[in-house]
């Protein structure tokens, strides 16, 4: 009696499913290597398909595939700062940063090449995609602040903080992922509170949103903890007042 090899079930992927498969394969490669180091053969091998099939879905070659992968990553990052508008601001920011930093951690050394430029395949289109992530994140933060028609000072403060988050993420990768992620997250939340308060001293609109946000904070939350650490230090400067 002869045994027959089992027949493997095969399901033809839809166009959208196949495209998603190729993008996921590309992102997994871009997560650990710079785009210029990756060939279409590498993507085909990672996806378990032929090189002509990759070209069928991305006839523009690696540049088109890279931009599509970048848009896919950008969409994921844009959603990181989306949170229901309930609860203390610092808790919402903490959850958003958990998602953002988890993405950075997952994509490891490829984060810089994938989202921060510095690649030989960088173009005005890829730069616009990355800038779109920053602008979307800033809009989410302004929504969290319930800022209606935010003025230039408040907008600048929020956008500067988004830039600081990116820079801290890159430095964290360069420093062998130290300090621990929860410490980095808490530090970034506290920095946001600090820069908001600083701007509030010069801008009535920012003062208004800061007072409203502080009213929702608990004594043992991030804002309260920061205040207890900082106020004694500021007290030493009382002679300057």
Give a description of the structure.
The structure is a single chain. This protein has 241 residues and is mainly alpha-helical. The chain folds into two domains: 15-69, Homeodomain-like (Arc Repressor Mutant, subunit A); 75-235, Tetracycline Repressor, domain 2, CATH 1.10.357. The protein is built from eleven helices and no strands. It has helices at 15-30, 40-47, 51-57, 62-78, 89-107, 110-115, 124-144, 152-174, 181-200, 204-215, 222-235. Helix 1 (15-30) crosses helix 4 (62-78) and helix 8 runs antiparallel to helix 9. The longest helix is centred in the C-terminal third of the chain and has 23 residues, at 152-174.
Name of the CATH superfamily of the largest domain: Tetracycline Repressor, domain 2
Distance between the termini: 97 Å
Reading off the top of the CATH hierarchy, the class of the largest domain is best stated as Mainly Alpha
Number of strands: 0
Q: What is the structural class?
A: mainly alpha
Give the SSE string: HHHHHHHHHHH
Gyration radius over CA: 23 Å
CATH architecture call of the largest domain: Orthogonal Bundle
| Bulk shape | elongated
Rounded average pLDDT? 84
